[in-house]
Amino acid sequence: MKEHRESFGFSIKVMSEVLDIKHKGFYPWLKKSKSIRNQKSIEILYEIRKFHKGDLLSYGSPRVQKELRARGIKVSLPTVAKIMRENGIKAITTRKFKHPVTTNSNHEEAISPNLLEQNFQVSTPNTVYVTDITYIPYLFGFLYLCKFKDICTKKIVGWAVDTHMKTSLYVAYLRMLLRTKNQMKAL
């Protein structure tokens, strides 16, 4: 009735006559029901905050409602959801770990020939390198560590790190490697 009065300008007396109810009881009922509902909401909020700590931060409104019922507090799911929403209480969710995709076989690029043909017996250092990418989880996603290994000496001769796995990760390292090698030859 209050909403209709505000929205359409109907008086409480007229609406009471149409609905065949007594208008004199409306205002006391409105005050009483609000205070009782408000008090119950405060009690429910107190209970929610009491156990919505530590490991229970992952509880959303359905689990909170079950927990409240287990403690003997009868409350509906929409009420719990509304109280949590109005007070900024949210379930903290964690995403499942998803391995990044490191191989894309569906491409139109030319496939490089296998020049080593599984022959890893190399006698001259700095002639054959192998590379690999390792992904490292961190706060905002993954870092990709590209390592280069000299097959002859079995030592890591360099590495590069970036937030992507694009070809530029390899190319940047190879350019740096070539500059380093040229500088070493000049000495």
List keywords for this structure.
single chain; alpha+beta; 2 domains; three-stranded antiparallel β-sheet; 15% strand; rod-shaped; HTH-like_dom; Integrase_cat-core; HTH-like domain protein
Question: What is this structure's SSE topology?
Answer:
Layout: H1 2-8, H2 12-19, H3 26-51, H4 61-70, H5 77-86, E1 129-138, E2 141-150, E3 155-162, H6 167-186
Antiparallel strand pairs: 1-2, 2-3
**What is the general shape?**
rod-shaped
The whole-number mean of residue pLDDT values reads 77
One letter per element, helices H and strands E, the order comes to HHHHHEEEH
Instruction: Please summarize the sheet with the most strands.
Output: 3 strands, antiparallel
Distance between termini? 93 Å
Number of strands: 3
Provide a count of the helices: 6
| Structural class label | alpha+beta
Low-pLDDT segments, ≥5 res? none
Helix content: 40-55%
Compute the number of structural domains: 2
How are the strands of the biggest sheet laid out side by side?
Answer: 1-2-3
Rounded to an integer, what's the Rg over CA atoms? Answer: 34 Å
Determine the strand fraction and express it as a percent band. Answer: 5-15%
Describe the structure.
The chain has helices at residues 2-8, 12-19, 26-51, 61-70, 77-86, 167-186, and strands at residues 129-138, 141-150, 155-162. By secondary structure, it is of the alpha+beta class. It folds into two domains: 2-86, no CATH class; 97-187, no CATH class. A hairpin with a 4-residue loop joins β2 (141-150) and β3 (155-162). The longest helix is centred in the N-terminal third of the chain and has 26 residues, at 26-51. The protein is rod-shaped.
